[in-house]
Amino acid sequence: MKKIFTILFIIANAVFVKAQNASQNTMNKASGDTGSKVQIGGYAQIDFNQPVKKDQMSNGTLDVHRMVLLFAYRFNERTNFVTEIELEHVKEVFVEQAFLNYEIKPWLNFRGGLMLVPMGIINEYHEPPTFNGVERPNLDNKIVPTTWREIGAGFTGRIDNVSLKYQLYVMNGFNGYNAGGAFRGTDGFRKGRQKGAESFLSSPNLATKIDYYGILGLKLGFSTYNGKSQSSMYNGIDKNDAAAIAVADSSVVGISMVGFDARYRKGGFEARGQVNIVNIKNTDQYNDFTGKDLGSQMFGWYAEAGYNLLHTAKTEQKFVPFVRYEMYNTHAKTDGGLSINGMYDRTDVTVGTGWWLATGAVLKADYQVFSDVSDNSTGQFNLGIGIWF
Amino acid sequence: MKILFFSIVPLLLIGGIQSSAEEFYPEKQALKMVKIALKEKDITLVEKVDVTDFFGKTDIVVIYRIRRIGGDDFYAVFTQATGRYEKFDYLITVNLDFAIEKIRVLKYRSEHGGEIASKKWLEQFKNYSSGELRYKKEISALSGATISANSIVEDIPKVLKILKNSCNE
User: Fold this and answer.
1) Which residues contact A160 (CB under 8 A, 6 or more apart)?
2) What ipTM is given for this predicted complex?
């Protein structure tokens, strides 16, 4: 993996040298007016969540869940920089993306910086008007820890003849240990996201995705993510100290995640689904070392269908009732002495509707039922406003 | 891995060569693009068609009449539509009955929506000449490219109107 990282670094240098030469051309007039060099956009999600429990009163919550501002700058026909600044819950500030893209050919772009990990649908396409439901699927929270982004570099491109898009990046991995274990049974790697914030690297990871859209109305995606978690314990230990290295090895896990997703639209009908399976190595030692309860396999899927009732009307508005069924188990398997926790084997059903006032503005309402093996199901009523411009 | 390295680096170097021109798809470049994008080998440029009325379309439209050696003439229209954040360039070839032969996206710039360059998706416009053309109705949806797909679907009837009007003047 380190070899790949070194090679990509060398390639990146070659790319930047060429980019510097090409910059003399600035904006190529042969390609016409591309609009402003600076692009501004954004998306926002404002939610009302009201938990519904049988024997217990619960306050509702009102939250500007996310407001993300996009700024992009095009240096020339080949080179652009994209960044998204995220305000989460009003008071937390993050950089969601910050990457430089250099187009060599449409089928070969170099990309480097803080990037979204291409896994499943929602991690890349999470602007509220692009999905049904006030909240994202929980599969894309507990197993795919959206919004999942790390610093890395690699290549992406389109092959128009065969309707394919690919992405291949070497990226920094999860922080699995930094003066304590970060992973846990209930939501796997979620607490280990480094988000490019003074992140540290002990072992780079490889993320890939292929999208195929050669069948009208259908888009299929296949994603992989492989590597090891990161650990602060490697920092400063003697390379010949086998005992110290063995201890540090206990603080990391091997991660192999695979995702398959599909989106289909025909007429007013729309459907989508996603499956993720994650095999995790060394959890026995990791859990012993950190006192955590990380499973050795996580598995989940969801399927969703909806119908635009305004499909035949002469309007850009959409009114889409939908239903989503999802199952996700973060303890599909465990290793060593760790017992499987049935509370982590969860099923959610979401029924609701979205009213798109315009392509980029939606009002949402839905009801969710969350259940696990204990049969203690709870509910939640949600209202949301979503925008994307 | 070494193979990957030695095959990609030359591509990066080749990729750095870029031409510049004063106009939007001038004659020489236009003919070259038709040859490359549509794999038309034996063609010659007959004339540049004067665009007489843009009918409210604000993006540039450049039209050439092109002759296939031993075949029929056709029109090649170079224009732009709007993607998620930036404009993209596309080419429509139209026969003398003003029916679309082929469409190719020549340059897509925005981060989202590049899927509209799919040849399979663009094939849906073949033989379109006039009448209603609506995204998600006559033309299939394309996940991940809603803005760009909507934009090109709305743009194509305007471009054909400009072409017909300019040729009938």
Assistant:
1) A106, B105, B117, B118, B119
2) 0.83
Domain residue ranges in chain A:
93-388
Question: pLDDT of A356-371, one tens digit each?
Answer: 999 999 999 999 999 9
pLDDT tens digit string along B35-80?
A: 998 888 899 999 999 988 888 888 899 999 999 988 899 999 999 9
Q: Do the beta carbons of residue A115 and residue A134 sit within 8 Å?
A: no
Q: What is the arrangement of strands in the sheet containing B73-82, beginning at the earlier edge strand?
A: B43-49, B61-68, B73-82, B87-95, B100-107
Residues 71-110 of B with CB under 8 A from A: 80, 82, 84-87, 89, 105-109
Task: Tell me which chain B residues have a C-beta less than 8 angstroms from the C-beta of A105.
Answer: 11, 15
At residue B47, the 3 state secondary structure works out as strand
Greater confidence (B55 vs A203) lies with: A203
Q: Where are the domains of chain B?
A: 20-168
Q: By three-state DSSP, how is residue B123 classified?
A: helix
- The tokens describing B116, both together, are 């509209």
Structural element, H or E, at residue A5: helix A2-22
Chain B environment of A266 (Cβ under 8 Å):
140-141
Contact across the interface for A263 and B143, Cβ inside 8 Å: yes
**Dist CA A108 CA A101 (whole Å):** 10
Residues 110-149 of A with CB under 8 A from B: 110, 125
Phi and psi at residue A226, in whole multiples of 5°? Answer: -135, 145
Contact predicate A331/A344, CB 8 Å: yes
For residue A146, give every residue at least 6 positions away whose Cβ sits within 8 Å of its Cβ, in sequence order, or none.
Answer: A122, A123, A126, A136, A140
Opening angle at CA B133, ends A309 and A266, nearest 5: 40
Within 13 A of A201's CA, how many CA atoms are on the CB side? 15
Backbone dihedral angles phi then psi of residue B22, each to the nearest 5 degrees = -85, -30
CA B8, CA B6: separation in Å to the nearest integer?
A: 6
Q: Specify whether the CB–CB gap between A158 and B117 falls below 8 A.
A: yes
Angle subtended by helix axes B2-15 and A2-22, to nearest 10:
10
Are the C-beta atoms of residues A186 and A340 closer than 8 Å to each other?
no
Tens-place pLDDT, residues A160-177: 999 999 999 999 999 999
- The CATH code that applies to domain A93-388 is 2.40.160.10
Which secondary-structure segment (H or E) carries A323?
Answer: strand A318-333
What phi and psi values does residue B145 have, to the nearest 5 degrees?
-140, 35
Q: Are β-strands A297-307 and A269-281 bridged in parallel, bridged antiparallel, or unpaired?
A: antiparallel
